[in-house]
Automatic annotation (TrEMBL):
PANTHER family: CYTIDYLATE KINASE/PANTOATE-BETA-ALANINE LIGASE (PTHR21299), PANTOATE--BETA-ALANINE LIGASE (PTHR21299:SF1). Its EC number is 6.3.2.1. The lineage of its organism: Eukaryota, Fungi, Dikarya, Ascomycota, Pezizomycotina. It comes from Chaetomidium leptoderma. This is Pantoate--beta-alanine ligase. Coiled coil: none annotated.
Length: 360
């Protein structure tokens, strides 16, 4: 879906001042006032709204969340906003894929599919695509750990794993989600299990700030070879894409140790994942620089499903979350004409996870 990575944003059809996505009845709302004006009557007539927050560059994972939202809500709002506050200063805010035209076409297509399927309560009513000036009225949000400003922090869960490597990430996510929830006032919000720690942070946010919102988590949509779909996969290029399944393969091996092998101990469960990583590293390094792929493991984790704190033993009545992050390093010796990926193929951080269901 996110095959094009330009920042093109061709004008959507606009009749009587109302902007719509081409070939659809989906409104494009760009200001908080416009969103609120649209929302108000639905609050009064008690029509439910499901919000699917995204950063655009839509793929089948996003579309699956929208389908789930349309099943259960009268209206679906999809937000498309690349939130600067969740990018660290050295991260990829400037090159993050922006594919507005392809996203608009995918949403229009999906909306027609939803209309034809009688089982849905609603369809895609609006895309909310605000500017940063609208979302951060006090000015561009600080991206440093010690930046000052109006932030929502969810700790300790936001400090571990992804939060350790990306120390401003969950502060940025919680802050922008609080804003989106306040603006849209959805009955339900939809998040993907691919970003499992994000789902735990959002559940904490909703519970601790008493927001009258149901958090729905949709399962991870994967490519045929198992790689979790992700907007950032476009950075990989062909060579690294072929090896990018290493993380999922490692997590599957750990899952098998738990499910098939009856392992409960951290070392036994994660050891199975580490073996897959080590074998893959050995295979790749034997290939030589013109063929090989280099990657570094940031973490492999076995954590508590509610707090994301590391477990030394799995309580089979509760299960756990296996997760990991790997950094795919830039291709070492690019070959003539080789597809290196979006933006010249920078280092790409991939994350994935598997939920270990209770075994008793
Ligand atoms: N493969 C997937 N399956 C299910 N949900 C997904 C998948 N990928 C992303 N999502 C969910 O879509 C929502 C929006 O995510 P986002 O726009 O950041 O896409 P992304 O593919 O996760 O991008 P990135 O590569 O930047 O992490 C999040 O709730 C995210 O968890
Ligand atoms: C939830 C989110 C849209 C907030 O910017 C983002 O973190 C994402 O796309 O997962
Ligand atoms: N899907 C999470 C968004 C991010 O990594 O910035």
């Amino acid at each position: 879906m996110a095959s094009r990575c330009s920042s093109s944003s061709s004008p959507s059809s606009s009749r009587g001042g109302l902007e719509k996505l081409p070939s659809s009845s989906i409104r494009v709302l760009r200001t908080i006032e416009a969103l609120r004006r649209w929302r108000r009557p639905h609050l009064l007539d008690q029509r439910s709204v499901g919000l699917v927050p995204t950063m655009g560059a839509l793929h089948e994972g996003h579309l699956a969340l929208i389908r789930a939202a349309a099943r259960a809500n009268h209206h679906v709002v999809v937000s498309v906003y690349v939130n600067p506050a969740q990018f660290g200063v050295r991260e990829d805010l400037a090159s993050y894929p922006v594919t507005w035209d392809a996203d608009a076409a995918a949403l229009a297509r999906l909306d027609r599919e939803l209309a034809d399927d009688g089982l849905n309560l609603g369809r895609i009513s609006a895309v909310f695509a605000p500017t940063t000036a609208a979302m951060y009225p006090a000015g561009f949000p600080g991206q440093e750990v010690d930046s000052r400003g109006s932030f929502v922090t969810i700790t300790p869960v936001g400090e571990v794993l992804e939060g350790k490597t990306r120390p401003t990430f969950f502060r940025g996510v919680a802050t922008v989600c609080m804003k989106l929830f306040n603006i849209v006032q959805p009955e339900r919000v939809y998040f993907g299990q691919k970003d499992v720690q994000q789902t735990v942070v959002i559940k904490r946010l909703v519970e601790d700030f008493m927001l009258p919102i149901e958090v729905v988590v949709g399962s991870t949509t994967r490519a045929e070879d198992g790689l979790a779909l992700s907007s950032r996969n476009v950075y990989l290029g062909e060579r690294r894409r072929a090896a990018a399944t290493v993380l999922y393969s490692a997590l599957r091996a750990a899952e098998e140790a738990y499910k098939g092998g009856g392992a409960r101990d951290r070392a036994a469960v994660l050891g199975a994942a580490e073996r897959v990583v080590d074998e893959t590293l050995a295979e790749q390094s034997a290939l030589g620089p013109e063929k090989r792929v280099r990657f570094e493991v940031d973490y492999l984790s076995l954590a508590d499903p509610d707090t994301m704190e590391e477990l030394s033993v799995i309580d089979p009545a509760r299960g756990g979350i296996l997760s990991g992050a790997v950094k795919m390093l830039p291709v070492e010796a690019p070959q003539e004409g080789e597809d290196l990926g979006h933006s010249g193929g920078p280092a790409v951080r991939l994350i994935d996870n598997i939920i270990l269901q209770p075994a008793e």
